[in-house]
Write a structure and sequence with these properties.
five-stranded mixed β-sheet, about 110 residues, Transcription Regulator spoIIAA, 3 helices, globular, alpha/beta
């Protein structure tokens, strides 16, 4: 897994590539929660994510819940293939804001 963080308008973009699983989901959690504690709006970029397991999904749910508590925006961008299927199977696609592009977050 690789994580790249950059800025896009008012958002911190957390781009995940490769696989998010039990071995590295703690790193993702620490990063997301840290940015949320700094009151950053979050875009989680899935465009290069190949796989995410239940621990990765739990991390996203925890970050999403914190974003709502702090009244911050939290979106997932570019979910496709296996990660999108996991979102659909867990019905989290109806909870998370799924966007096709970063630009959609500005609307």
């Amino acid at each position: 897994m690789q994580i790249i963080v950059d800025d896009f308008d008012r958002f911190k973009v957390v781009k995940l590539s490769g696989e998010v699983d039990l071995h590295n989901s703690r790193d993702v959690k620490k990063l997301l929660l840290g940015h949320l504690e700094e009151l950053a709006h979050i875009l989680v970029d899935f465009t290069e994510l190949e796989y995410i397991d239940s621990s990765g999904m739990a991390t996203l749910v925890e970050a999403f819940n914190l974003s709502k508590t702090k009244k911050l925006d939290f979106h997932i961008v570019g979910a496709k293939d296996a990660p999108l299927q996991v979102l659909k199977l867990t019905r989290l696609d109806s909870i998370f804001s799924l966007l096709e592009s970063r630009e959609q977050a500005l609307d």
